[in-house]
């Protein structure tokens, strides 16, 4: 980044000579400092999993929640700055309500994420506001079927079969690419996503973390719901056991 | 002057209306009943319109009065329940809270001199104990709780019957029969009613509203037979 420190990164309304907007890129950096979030669109719905790193040993389980519901059939997972994410969630709820009021039916996922992306993008255009330091994974199930989207701080919106963001996104993406998403059910995906999060989790840096998951699938009646805690615990335990075994094997190889 | 540039006219009378709603609090829940007629003045316009709605797992609502105003209230409540859903805190909204919320909505509208022309009957259970809850709000924002509630014509016809049938230990199953009987009497007496009705029961297990069904009625009284009365002998 040759232009860094030469005054081109002071405002989101300034381009660098190479045509980049550094402030927006910095915002994306703040997502990369956060716990990993992954999502997968399966044959019967969508699952989102977020690695919630504890800021403190004394933090209570369940606080600073990173998965949210914005409508009965739409759930959001947040990676990055949580307060910024909550702002996004509030906006989504507002838009969902507004859509219902005007059209008398639940908002389609496609419309909602489009509005969210426009909102996010607006905050990259003016010097007097700060961009969002978070990405939102959006899971929806409507007439169009199950859908997974990600909105990034730049306002970029994409629809995915599977996606990852946060600290270990590269590693997580590689793991997700191995999955056969067309055949996978959500129940199976819970195990797979837990495995992904456990594998990419860096236990040397972040000791305590919580696994938060939501799904919108046939099993949940096409409504956004938390994945039952027993299911998450089970999946996490299985993944951790497997990881331990592999680590032991590696140690044996070394010896 | 009326209708001048600075004046504004609000709803002063209802046009499309539903007649009575009745409710009975029971030991293990609550029962609401209403017919499915929505009239345009004295014309029986819509004969299969539900006047009961299930608000949540623990709460049902019935209305009498202006239908369009009720539709507004209904969408307000649906919005409330969605925000409740999004909260995802596992703390269900109590029927008492919904009652109070509606009282605020009605009273606010009334204070703008533009009331929502309804009487609303709220029936529910307290999720923790399973105890029934029955309340009313009217277009002025007046609100109260009672063991038995009836609106409109039902105040005169059904309320005395409900009072007679009420016992603190009456069950929902018994209450259902009482409500059905009251609806039948209302159908006999109230010219703005119809014999297709719905009944909503709310117990610890959940809130349930039946599909519209026909009341059994009997008209084979001697006086009803053609020719049994003097005026039956037509002079034309």
Automatic annotation (TrEMBL), chain A:
The record's subcellular location field reads: Cytoplasm; Nucleus
CDD domains noted in UniProt: proteasome_alpha_type_3 (cd03751)
Residue segments, region Disordered: 228-255
Q: Write out the biased-composition intervals (Basic and acidic residues).
A: 233-242
Residue ranges of the TM segments? none
Could you tell me the Gene Ontology terms of the biological process aspect for this record?
ubiquitin-dependent protein catabolic process
User: Which SMART domains would you find in this protein's record?
Assistant: Proteasome_A_N
The UniProt keyword set, sorted, is:
Cytoplasm, Nucleus, Proteasome
Q: Does the keyword Nucleus apply?
A: yes
Q: Which GO terms describe its cellular component?
A: cytoplasm; nucleus; proteasome core complex, alpha-subunit complex
- From start to end residue, where is composition biased (Acidic residues)? 243-255
Q: Where is the Proteasome alpha-type subunits domain?
A: 8-30
Q: Where is the signal peptide?
A: none
Instruction: Give a yes or no for keyword Nucleus in this entry.
Output: yes
Q: What's this protein's family per the entry? A: Belongs to the peptidase T1A family.
State the function annotated in the UniProt record.
Answer: The proteasome is a multicatalytic proteinase complex which is characterized by its ability to cleave peptides with Arg, Phe, Tyr, Leu, and Glu adjacent to the leaving group at neutral or slightly basic pH. The proteasome has an ATP-dependent proteolytic activity.
* Annotated protein name in UniProt: Proteasome alpha-type subunits domain-containing protein
Where does this protein come from, organism-wise? Rhodosorus marinus
Lineage, opening ranks: Eukaryota, Rhodophyta, Stylonematophyceae, Stylonematales, Stylonemataceae
TrEMBL record, chain B:
The protein's superkingdom reads: Eukaryota
Q: Which GO terms describe its cellular component?
A: cytoplasm; nucleus; proteasome core complex, beta-subunit complex
Which ranges does the record mark as transmembrane? none
Q: Establish whether keyword Cytoplasm is in the entry.
A: yes
CDD domains per record: proteasome_beta_type_4
Set out the biological process GO terms recorded for this chain's protein: proteolysis involved in protein catabolic process
Q: Which family does it belong to?
A: Belongs to the peptidase T1B family.
Please describe what this protein does.
Non-catalytic component of the proteasome.
Return the protein name.
Proteasome subunit beta
């Amino acid at each position: 980044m040759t232009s860094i420190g030469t005054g081109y990164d002071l405002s989101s309304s300034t381009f660098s000579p190479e045509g980049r907007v550094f402030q927006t890129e910095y915002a994306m950096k703040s997502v990369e400092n956060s716990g990993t979030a992954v999502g997968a669109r399966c044959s019967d719905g969508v699952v989102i999993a977020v690695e919630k790193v504890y800021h403190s040993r004394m933090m209570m389980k369940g606080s600073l929640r990173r998965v949210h519901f914005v409508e009965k059939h739409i759930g959001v997972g947040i990676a990055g700055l949580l307060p910024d994410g909550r702002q996004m969630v509030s906006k989504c709820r507002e838009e969902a309500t507004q859509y219902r009021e005007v059209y008398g039916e639940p908002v389609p996922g496609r419309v909602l994420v489009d509005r969210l992306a426009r909102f996010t993008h607006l905050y990259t255009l003016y010097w007097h506001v700060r961009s969002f330091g978070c990405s939102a994974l959006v899971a929806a199930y409507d007439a169009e079927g199950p859908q997974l989207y990600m909105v990034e701080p730049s306002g970029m919106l994409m629809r995915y079969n599977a996606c990852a963001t946060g600290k270990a996104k590269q590693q997580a993406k590689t793991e997700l690419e191995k999955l056969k998403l067309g055949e996978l059910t959500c129940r199976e995906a819970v195990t797979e996503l837990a495995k992904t999060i456990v594998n990419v989790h860096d236990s040397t840096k972040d000791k305590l973390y919580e696994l938060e998951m939501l799904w919108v699938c046939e099993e949940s009646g096409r409504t956004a719901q938390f994945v039952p805690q027993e299911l998450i615990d089970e999946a996490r335990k299985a993944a951790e056991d497997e990881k331990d075994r592999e680590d032991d094997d590696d140690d044996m190889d070394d010896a | 002057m009326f209708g001048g540039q600075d004046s504004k006219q609000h709803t002063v009378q209802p046009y499309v209306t539903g007649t009575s709603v009745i409710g009975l609090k029971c030991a293990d829940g609550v029962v609401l009943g209403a017919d499915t007629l929505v009239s345009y003045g004295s014309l029986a316009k819509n004969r299969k319109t539900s006047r009961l709605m299930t608000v949540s797992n623990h709460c049902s609502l019935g209305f009498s009065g202006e239908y369009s105003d009720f539709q507004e209230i209904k969408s307000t409540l649906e919005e409330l329940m969605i925000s409740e859903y999004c909260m995802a805190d596992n703390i269900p909204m109590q029927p008492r809270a919904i009652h109070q919320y509606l009282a605020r909505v009605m009273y606010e509208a009334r204070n703008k001199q533009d009331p929502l022309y309804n009487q609303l009957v709220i029936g529910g259970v307290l999720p923790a104990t399973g105890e029934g809850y029955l309340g009313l709000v009217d277009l002025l924002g007046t609100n109260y709780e009672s063991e038995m509630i009836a609106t409109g014509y039902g105040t005169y016809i059904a309320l005395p019957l409900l009072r007679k049938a009420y016992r603190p230990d009456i069950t929902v199953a018994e209450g259902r029969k009482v409500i059905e009987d009251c609806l039948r009497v209302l159908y006999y007496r109230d010219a703005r009613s119809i014999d297709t009705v719905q009944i909503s029961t709310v117990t610890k297990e959940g809130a349930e509203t039946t599909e519209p069904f026909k009341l059994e009625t009997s008209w084979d009284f001697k006086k009803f037979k053609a020719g049994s009365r003097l005026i039956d002998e037509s002079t034309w």
